[in-house]
Amino acid sequence: MTMDNETADKTSQAKKICLHLQSQDRRLKKQTYIDLQDFLSNEELTDQELRNIYTETYMYFLNGLRDESEAVREQAIKFVNFLITQRLPLNDFYLTYIFPVLLERIGSVELIETSEEVRLQMVQLLRAIIIKYSNTIQLKPFLNDSTIVLCETVKDKYPAIKELSCQTIISLAKALPKDFHLQSETLLKPVLSCFTHQRYKIRVEAIKAVGEIIMHSTYKGVDEAVVPMAEKLFDQIPTVRQAVAQEASRWLLEHRDRYSYFHKMLPLILTGLNDEVENTRQEAHYLWEKIGLQYQKENEKDLKDKLDYLLELPKNYPSHMQRPNLGCRVLVQRNISKLAGALSNELTNWQEDVRVRCSQLLCSVALHAEEDLTFNLQNLLPAMYSAARDDDKRVVANIIQASEIIGLFVSFTTWSKLVIPVIEDGLHYGHLTVLAGLIEGAPKEHISEAIEQLSNLLAVDYICNSRKKKYQLELLKCIRVFMKKFTKDTNTGYNIFKIITSLISLKDPENVDVLTPNLYEELAQSLQLPTKTDVLIKYSNKLFNHINQEPKLWTPVTEQACIFLTLLAECDEAFGINLDTIADILSQVLDGETEAEMRLKTFFVLAKVFENKDVIFKQATDLNDFLEKLITNIFVPSLVWHAGATAEAIRTMSACCLKYALLPNGEVDLFASGHVLEELMRKMLPLLLSLMEDASSRSREVAIECVSLLKTHCVQKGVWWNDDLLKIYPDVLRRCDDPAEKVRLCALKNLQVIFENVPDEFLQPNFKAHRELIIDTLMVHFDDDNETVQILVLGILKVVARMNPSEMQGKIEIHRSLVANKKGCEEIVNFIQNDLI
């Protein structure tokens, strides 16, 4: 009885304190909650006393949660939190009065509680209740109410409430592990809405919440969550991506129906294996290893043979890669068809981040699937071809890496059946990127025999003759891989030579620094030949014959024309062993009916080539015949006068080319016999003399040089006749009055050559008139204002003086009084007296 009176007394005291909660003064109400908390903090109060007090006072203190004053509501929440979590024993009786208020204030679609801080405190109260009643039967009746509240609070605009709501959902799932599945999928959509929040911490908490929800969900929940989770793999914050990997690994390790969802969950962890942040990669590898070992243990009977016999690494396995454990490999291999289908679709996604992550995933899948990827290549390769052309270099790098992995594990016989028909039908540079990767990855002993087949394919004209910039670079990668892989020189060497020549000839302007003749050196090294010259000697003839297709129709942009000019410029000693073919092509290309620009370009290249006669004719066996064809069929027709500026340019370039062809070289005897040279001179001389009257000063200049060179060769062969001299010197002498300074100087320089070694007949008395004409003409120019002209004339006069010194001395005496250049006359006289008489 005493006990009952004591309890009643305490209850009465509590009620007395609560009466102040009916006041209009908010400060008094706030103080009342503090006083009531102090009163209930008395540890002497029994559970029964607390229950009685709660029963008699709840209608007072719970009403404070609806008070108009925010400060009062805050204090009321603090009091309820204290009372429920610290003082009252576990009993669903107390919660029966709390949850309706929470539902009313923060669990309705319409916003009742306007204060963000109060809403946050209410969620904190809810979480505190859930934690205290965790794994108790008393909490089970309030699962639905909790779910309703959290569905709304997780969508709250206040970030702190969102974050705390996600954490509370996890707490609720752990508090009611056997019952949470009844409401888990209800929470999924609201939580997924947080995935796009700007604060990464909220995204992380939402991912963790989804991870917990899925652990209690059916297939519908998994389907709904996988795509948003995958999208978070593209998040810019590493912590977010790390959270995805952690939750995905948990599903793969613990989800009760994980065997049904492996194909959906695997990409979430596999993508993390290639994350750009090292810590994320390391954790993903650790978690994935753990998943594989568990799967291996769970399927130990099925995998017994592989566990016993496949302990060593496969031969040729990349040293820089660590082979995943058997469980990881088998897990991917058994789901490869579904993974490959998704990869094929997403590799060409319009979103850049998706393509990057998908290409990373492809690398991981290829590494795990190994030869089991064979049956899915038909779907994967087309997507890889497209992805290899991606503007993002990261995607391309991943596609190359994946191609190399596929090439390592899948045999050439298998992938070639898919790749070769595509290339034959019309390829783009994406095909070449993948092909180079496949060959790079393939073991040398397995691919070397196939290189010939592949090089034959790429050496076809319509494939290797391309002017596209990126295409050329990828084709270059292919042939460099070929050069690393082939072991013997069958037709492969020629095919690579042909491709290299095409690339150099047709290179895009932006590829000038990459596609250079140095590629011939690379080929020489792979073929174990000393220099590029040996490569050209070995293969140039076959290529010359291959491109010899109607050269008359060539233009400067014709593929065969570009290749011909490149070979011509680069062949060095190989020129001499291809004289017949080159002469045949040149005679057609430089025919009068061929396009003018093509002829000009050919003459220009040929002139440059003739500058190295000691090299190009080093291995020539029938040089005489070649030069005869060249002069008869090419130079003679090209020097004939035709009206028009184009014809004039061709004459000039032809004469320049002839000049370089005639330049003497100590190591090469250009003309085997004087008879041949004499016949050729008879054909060329009239045209060259005519060219000295050409409108182009350059033509006149070169014509003089050519005549001088012909004279030199004729003297060497003993076929320099008086008639030839009488034909030549008057025209050259007239050029001393040429309006172009360069032509005048050229004539004076070459007259000295022409008047040396004159035929004996010219020294006879009956040709005195010619000699006097020469002296008289030269004396006119001896007074030229140009000192260089005076010096050149002095040199010529000294040469002419050797013909008849006394005759020259007499003429000088006659002209001495007529010319201003007294010093020059004196020098000639002294030269005659001291050196000649």
From TrEMBL:
This is HEAT repeat-containing protein 2. GO terms for cellular component: cytoplasm. Residues 315-506 form the Dynein axonemal assembly factor 5 HEAT-repeat domain. The lineage of its organism: Eukaryota, Metazoa, Ecdysozoa, Arthropoda, Hexapoda. HEAT repeats lie at residues 728-766. Residues 21-306 form the Dynein axonemal assembly factor 5 TPR repeats domain. It holds the Pfam family TPR_DNAAF5. GO terms for biological process: cilium movement; inner dynein arm assembly; outer dynein arm assembly. GO terms for molecular function: dynein intermediate chain binding. Coiled coil: none annotated.
